[in-house]
């Protein structure tokens, strides 16, 4: 069963005075794991933020589950870039994960024991249960990223957007995160991930969205993630990379 | 209550309200917004005076809230037109403050309002200006105003505690789960405004900035927990107010000046000796 749960039509957006996204069109089916790939400044983060109404959309329309964003909000989870928050904020790991439940808890109420337990379960899932009480500035980059992932998991959304969850993390964290993303996919969730490491794309994602201010290619990884398309996306500056594809990386998940 | 007791109570209320609000100013990295608002509420107070022709608490509060929100809106608007944040702030608050100063000089000069008073406050006069309340009897107007404002501040911090936390820590996530980040921002600016207006009489526009920022910045160095930071900041605010009074009595000098000076001492001590983030602790303990 394939159904488009995210449809973007003619989306454009600008950042400062420059148009960064124009005429972006794509449809995402349920149960896919998509890598959003493109060079720096291609508008990958801006695309996610624009879809989620966090950044003004100049034109076009976006629907989630055949509804506008406002109505589908509860079914959507968002993992911002790790660098977008101040990790010196006075709080601990469990508390940050609990924040994922604030929408569900509602106004004028405090998180209950039940919510804390849910958050703790999510921490366990990302292998961070031992760090629940740890002040967040004392966690490594990879651990902070896992906290962010746990926070998205407690939201129990159907569609997730993750902005560079694998940037600057250690190998163990990368494996842990990819394992969870694969599991989300197996459970019928849809995940879109901004990714920067071209060499792992084929192993990690079943779909790719090649982006450079507009959609260069979108579809199944084996069809779209070709040398030619990559060249088009990166403006031919990736010559060093061609040939790397033969490099035999054992796919860890499938 | 004695004259001194009223002054101490008033100072403590200033310290407590400012200490609590200050925590979020620091964590939201908008500490200097307090500076801007503390100046522009002068315009609000003057306008309230010109409209009502008297120095009344509620009118001043309303005028202050209005001026504070206008400041926040104008800063945001200039920023959306690509003016840098700090430049927008500098332009907006000096202009509004200047209008306030001109209005005082031309239209309100003979009243209770004057620029010197607005900048420095005069806590020593507070006990002379009383109002009669049903249960409490005669209490100084500034003190009554501060009690109301403290209650309002406590109410909003408690009622929206988790919303303050999430909009401060991660506004993008907050927005994505449907928390009105912009509305919370203006509500917060409103709270900063009322706190500033109420503290105005006691410590004035310049000193209130010290009360808003220094206790919270000190508390930030002592703890890794938001709730503890709020409690500590409130305690530091009250203690600094008391210490300031003692210094002023001892040296026979400006009370508001001494209080602001005391907040500086609290910060310096915290900065050096805090077991978590102090200079000594960092030197002794190897980096994690």
Distance between the termini of chain A: 19 Å
- Taken from the alpha-carbon principal axes, the silhouette of chain B is globular
**SSE pattern of chain A:** EEEHEHEHHHHEHEHEEHH
Greatest interface? A-B, 34 and 29 residues
CATH superfamily of chain B: ABC transporter involved in vitamin B12 uptake, BtuC
- Assigned CATH superfamily of the domain at 4-84 and 157-246 in chain A: P-loop containing nucleotide triphosphate hydrolases
Strand content of chain A: 15-25%
Mean pLDDT of chain A: 89
- Using the CA coordinates, give the radius of gyration of chain B: 19 Å
CATH class of chain B: Mainly Alpha
Oligomer kind? heterodimer
> Biggest sheet of chain B, in brief?
2 strands, antiparallel
Structure classification of chain A: alpha/beta
Element-by-element helix/strand order of chain B: HHHHHEEHHHHHHH
What does this molecule look like?
The complex is a heterodimer of chains A (254) and B (288). The two termini of chain A are 19 Å apart. Chain A has ten helices and nine strands. In chain A, strand 6, helix 7 (171-186) and strand 7 (190-194) form a beta-alpha-beta unit. A six-stranded mixed sheet of chain A has the order 5-6-7-3-8-9, with helices on both faces. In chain A, strands 2-1-4 form a three-stranded antiparallel sheet, with helices on one face. With 254 residues, chain A is of the alpha/beta class. Chain A has helices spanning 44-51, 69-72, 93-98, 102-105, 113-125, 141-154, 171-186, 198-204, 221-224, 227-234, and strands at 4-15, 18-29, 33-37, 59-64, 76-79, 159-163, 190-194, 207-211, 215-220. The model of chain A is unreliable at 242-254 (pLDDT under 50). Chain A has a domain at 4-84 and 157-246: P-loop containing nucleotide triphosphate hydrolases (Rossmann fold, 3-Layer(aba) Sandwich), CATH 3.40.50.300. In chain B, helix 1 (3-27) packs across helix 9 and helix 9 (181-220) crosses helix 11. Chain B contains twelve helices and two strands. Chain B has a single domain, classed as ABC transporter involved in vitamin B12 uptake, BtuC (Orthogonal Bundle), CATH 1.10.3470.10. With 288 residues, chain B is mainly α. Helix content of chain B is 78%, strand content 3%. The interface between A and B is medium-sized, with 34 and 29 residues.
């Amino acid at each position: 069963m394939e159904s488009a749960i995210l449809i973007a039509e003619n989306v454009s957006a600008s950042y400062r005075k420059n148009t960064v996204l124009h005429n972006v069109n794509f449809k995402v089916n349920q149960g896919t794991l998509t890598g959003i790939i493109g060079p720096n400044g291609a508008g990958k983060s801006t695309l996610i933020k624009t879809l989620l109404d966090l950044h003004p959309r100049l034109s076009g329309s976006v629907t989630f589950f055949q509804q506008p964003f406002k109505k589908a909000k509860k079914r959507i989870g968002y993992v911002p870039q790790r660098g977008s928050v101040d990790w010196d904020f006075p709080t601990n790991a469990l508390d940050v994960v609990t924040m994922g439940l604030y929408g569900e808890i509602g106004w004028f109420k405090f998180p209950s024991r039940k919510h804390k337990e849910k958050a703790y379960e999510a921490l366990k899932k990302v292998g961070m249960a031992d760090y629940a009480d740890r002040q967040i500035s004392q966690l490594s980059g990879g651990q902070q990223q896992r906290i962010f992932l746990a926070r998205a998991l407690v939201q129990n959304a159907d569609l997730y957007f993750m902005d560079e969850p694998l940037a600057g993390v250690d190998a163990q964290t990368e494996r842990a995160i990819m394992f969870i993303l694969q599991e989300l996919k197996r459970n019928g969730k849809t995940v879109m991930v901004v990714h920067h490491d071209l060499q792992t794309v084929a192993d990690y994602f079943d779909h790719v969205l090649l982006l450079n201010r507009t959609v260069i290619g979108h579809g199944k990884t084996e069809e779209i993630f070709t040398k030619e398309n990559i060249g088009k996306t990166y403006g031919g500056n990736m010559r060093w990379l061609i040939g790397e594809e033969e490099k035999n990386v054992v796919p860890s998940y499938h | 209550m004695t004259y001194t007791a009223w002054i101490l109570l008033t100072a403590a209320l200033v310290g407590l309200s400012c200490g609590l609000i200050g925590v979020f100013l620091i964590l939201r990295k908008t500490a200097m917004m307090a500076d801007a608002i503390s100046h522009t509420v002068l315009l609000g107070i003057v306008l309230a005076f010109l409209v009502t022709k008297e120095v009344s608490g509620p009118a001043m509060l309303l005028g202050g809230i209005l001026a504070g929100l206008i400041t926040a809106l104008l800063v945001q608007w200039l920023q959306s037109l690509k003016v840098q944040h700090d430049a927008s702030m500098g332009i907006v608050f000096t202009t509004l403050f200047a209008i306030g100063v001109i209005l005082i000089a031309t239209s309100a000069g003979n009243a209770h309002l004057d620029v010197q008073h607005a900048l420095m406050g005069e806590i020593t006069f507070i006990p002379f200006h009383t109002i009669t309340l049903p249960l409490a009897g005669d209490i100084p107007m500034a003190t009554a105003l501060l009690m109301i404002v403290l209650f309002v501040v406590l109410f909003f911090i408690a009622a929206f505690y988790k919303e303050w936390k999430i909009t401060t820590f991660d506004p993008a996530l907050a927005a994505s789960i449907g928390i009105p980040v912009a509305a919370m921002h203006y509500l917060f600016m409103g709270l900063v405004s009322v706190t500033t207006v109420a503290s105005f009489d006691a410590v004035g526009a310049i000193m209130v900035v010290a009360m808003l920022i220094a206790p919270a910045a000190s508390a930030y160095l002592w703890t890794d927990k938001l709730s503890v930071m709020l409690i500590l900041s409130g305690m530091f605010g009250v203690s600094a107010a008391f210490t300031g009074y003692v210094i002023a009595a001892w040296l026979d000098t400006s009370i508001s000046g001494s209080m602001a000076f005391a907040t500086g001492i609290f910060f310096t001590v915290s900065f050096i000796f805090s077991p978590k983030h102090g200079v000594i602790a960092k030197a002794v303990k190897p980096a994690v």
